[in-house]
Amino acid sequence: MIREVEGDILLSKAQVIAHGIAPQDHFDSGLALALRERWPSMVRDYRHASHAGAPESGGIWVWSGVNEDGGTRCIVNLLTQDMQHSGRSAKPGKATLENVGHCLRELVKFIQNEKIESLALPRLATGVGGLEWSKVKPVITKYLGELDIPVLIYEVYHKGAVAEERLS
In the 8-state DSSP scheme, what is residue 162? Predict the structure, then answer.
């Protein structure tokens, strides 16, 4: 069941936070930057994994680490964006609806295989990704709408504000 909430996704009590990135993302803007500041080891691990085998658009990269309270935090990085250029001059490009669909299919498999109980995500691929929410939202509904878990879409960001998630 999909619910729209307002607040700070970094304060979500959902078991998993998912967000969009590019294959060689620098995590230097938007939600990716906030995640990098909160969990710098995620970015180090991502860079290490990227050097071992370049992640591709349309896939996912899952990271788990420790929260300030000692609990586990799981972040699913959805590779919704393509890259412009290659090598040292590579820069994140725009997201595509095709990549969003592929990522969400992979996310659903991960949720089912790992028996995930709740998911939070922003208005996916609409910031740096450059897509229109009116086109992305139906794709999210198509893939995540049938899940039998709470799926929280953070429609509006309010730094430091805890959303009314109603997870219990």
Answer: P
CATH label, 2-157, candidates 3.40.220.10, 3.40.50.12500, 3.30.420.140, 3.20.20.80: 3.40.220.10
Residue with tokens 């049938």: 146
Q: From CA 75, how far away is CA 78, in angstroms rounded?
A: 9
The pTM score is: 0.91
Tens of pLDDT along the chain (168 residues) come to: 999 999 999 999 999 999 998 887 778 878 888 888 998 899 899 888 887 876 788 999 999 998 878 888 999 999 999 766 565 656 667 899 999 999 999 999 999 999 999 999 999 999 889 999 999 999 999 999 999 999 999 998 898 999 999 997
**Nearest by Cα to 3 from 149, 160, 168, 161:** 149
